[in-house]
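Homework help board

Subject: predicted structure for assignment chain

Our instructor gave us this sequence and asked us to write out the predicted structure in token form, then describe one feature. I got the tokens but I'm not sure how to describe them. Can anyone check?
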Amino acid sequence: MGSIFPHARLACFAALAGCAAPQYQTNVSLIPPVDSAGRACVQACETGKLACQTDCVGRFRVCSESIEPQVEARCTEALSQFENDLGQYVAALRSYEVQPGFAWMNSYTAYPCGWGRW
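My token output:
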């Protein structure tokens, strides 16, 4: 087997080595402070974070509500454009489907075996 597949062992090793790549994971553990000043600082930070998140959600809501009419208008415009393009495509497809059916009759200049037009 070694002479038939000289690099088989190397390929197997490379495949197994690729599967055994190290995986990294970050674990975060928060240890609350023991003294009252530290706990007050953490509480103030949590309160500030909550206020910031509430403010962010409110600004996001105002922004999304103000942009909603523009989105609706653009969506309606895009849908209308799509319907127009689809209509043009369907018309071109129907035209294409009809043309080959009749074009073959005029495409031959010489008739095999002396056949003429019927």
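Reply (TA_rk): Your tokens look well-formed. For the description, you could write something like this. The mean pLDDT is 80. That's the kind of observation they're looking for.
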